[in-house]
Amino acid sequence: MKTKHIIPLFLLIGLVLSCGSTKSTINPDDKLIGDWSLVAEATPQGDVPITMTIAKDEAGNFIGALTSMMGDYTMSNLVLEHGKLSCEFDVQGILFEFQGVFIEDEFKGQTIGPAESYVTNGKRKG
Do 50 and 35 contact (CB within 8 A), yes or no? Predict the structure, then answer.
């Protein structure tokens, strides 16, 4: 008779333990993933249109790329936290810093080179 009560008890305990929350934490910066149309203003080449692409790798880390008439560049040392972005990219052996802040569907930032910096602003594509 005791066996009849033990099996339902174990089933009940298993059910209670499996009811824990399985929700994963959602990173609010995930909403920034996608393509952004930017313009680096008043560079030696004039105003340069740029497409910035933000994604995540298999490990869940943010990755990115910048594409312009000057070429395609990988965003290295990319940090994206609380809507603030910073990274570096290499143009023919010259290291540039890139930083800015996202405000809803707008990006306000700057590209910092060895001698000058350039305002780099834009909006989400689409």
Answer: no
